[in-house]
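Hello,

Following up on my earlier ticket. Below are the two sequence lines again, exactly as submitted.
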Amino acid sequence: MYRWFDERLSLSRFNKKFLNKAFAVHHSYFIGEIALFAFITLVITGIFLTFNYEPSIRTVKVAGKAVSAAYASVLYIDSLPFGRVLRSVHHWSASIMIAAAFIHLLRVLVSGAYKRPREINWFIGLLLLVVAIVTSFTGYSLPFDAFSATATSIGYGIGTSIPYVGEWISQIIFGGEFPTLHSIPRVYALHVLWFPLILMAILGMHMLVMVKQKHTQPNYARKVAPGRILGVPLMPQQAYMSTVLFLLYLAVVFFIAGAYIAHPIEVYGPPTASTPAVKPDWYLIWVYGILQIIPGDLKIPLPFGAVMNSEFIGSILVPGILGLAAVLLPFLDTRSTKMRYMELPTKHPVRTGVTFALLAFLITTTLAGWKQELGLSAGQLWFIILGSSLLTYLVVYYAIIFFWGRPSKEDAGAV
Amino acid sequence: MSKKTDTTRRAIVGATIGVGLGIGTLSLLAPVASLRPKKETSPETEPPKEGDVFTFAIGDNAGKEITFDDLPLEGPAVLAYPKDPKTGVIKSGEKNNLVLLLKLKPEELGEEVKKYAAAGTVCYSAICTHLGCTVGEWDAAKKDFLCPCHKGLFDPRKGAEVIAGPPPRPLPALPISAAGDKPVVAGGFTSPPGVLSGTDTHGGSCTV
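Thanks for your patience. The regenerated structure is below:
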């Protein structure tokens, strides 16, 4: 049988080249894989959800109560055997995918792996993270409960704040002034078809580029076999490790999702004219925090009567500047030689310090999401955010210098 | 083949492709424009107009007409939709028609606010000018409107001006008058209700 296929498709040539491909081994290299496993889980649980979900907000009667068809179908999903758990796994996997992708990004950042020749994969990875967050946000509205309708209408408002084209973009994405009868079908199509297709395409590119350019090597490889690619073959060792990790991932996520059911829609109920006090999922709370403490009268005028208002600045411009800084990074932080081995964070105190400062910024702006509960003013929170970011940078920078010494010139490269 | 004809051939191929792509892109503008849904209007989506009464928007009394006695003094405010008394249509089809009715002590109202108020009762758009949430909460200690989403505070005694939080402008007021025991609409919103974005947000409830 194998020979029959081999004669026609030259499988052995492919096997020799591809299945023997050496995969570098380091514990931090599995984080990106976890993001991939989460994506696969999202697709599989998503298929189950699409088979039972009804993308419409036309009113139907459930037990004598008028609710939207979308809401009713989610109640139906929850009533199926294991349905509630599968929906919860879908929600949890979205969180895990974004978390894993972000930690993967931090790993690449502190080990300098974005440098020549891997800039392209750094850009693709950034795009992946952004599209993953946008995709999960489009999933918010689908159960159409009070929480999801509120969160999505805030997203609609943020979209319209884009100067010149905001109104158009928001209305095209959300099917008019959210919520209309067109909203859910449209967001549904984006969530289950277009964004997953885009994600698959850029995920495939991310991995093809990685295979083509070869992974960075862990530092032990320099000692074991200097100048050569060190790793285990894709088949069977790497595939075996990945399979075990995937099964482990499934076991853990099913346990968490079963024990902590995500987004129980009965708690929020169908949307009403009133708005519940909601916070977005954890990965957007930092934006939510910034939106609460940014002065409302802050605006940057643009030509032709348009302005960048505080909503745009807080929720699009600030994250956009962080993204732009990430895009520029491989051009600013370069090295003369081709990157082969991971760089040590302790030999790059500036970069490591900035990474920790970024984390401090994200954590403290997330904290600002609890502004009312904390009873702090916007000014105090800004002081905490900027102060702790700066302090974190200085502490990390001097701690590295103190414990590991000043990096030598050849170690440091640029920073 | 001479070099000259070769470059001419390239130029022609290039121009053909360029013109084709250009016209193709231009012809896409119409379908892209129709991606934006049509705004469907019905009696339910019409803005409030003079003479409209108010009905409860939520709760057990939803749909019932509101009298001054239904409004608790000094809050919390009541969420309401306008209703055309002639046709009996409740205008709940448009989000920006949702308003807050609040009864206050008449002596506490600012001079500007008194023009829009009737019997100490004020009426404001309930849609937050920040990102379009319903300003449905009542800060009982400060006696201010509170938006639950990003904690914007509005002072109903001073034209719903922003006391704290991120909203860019006050909530537009809806002038009301008294018709018997009921508050009725006495004119349109003093400024556009809801989220005004991407354009300059000048004006507020006190400027018109």
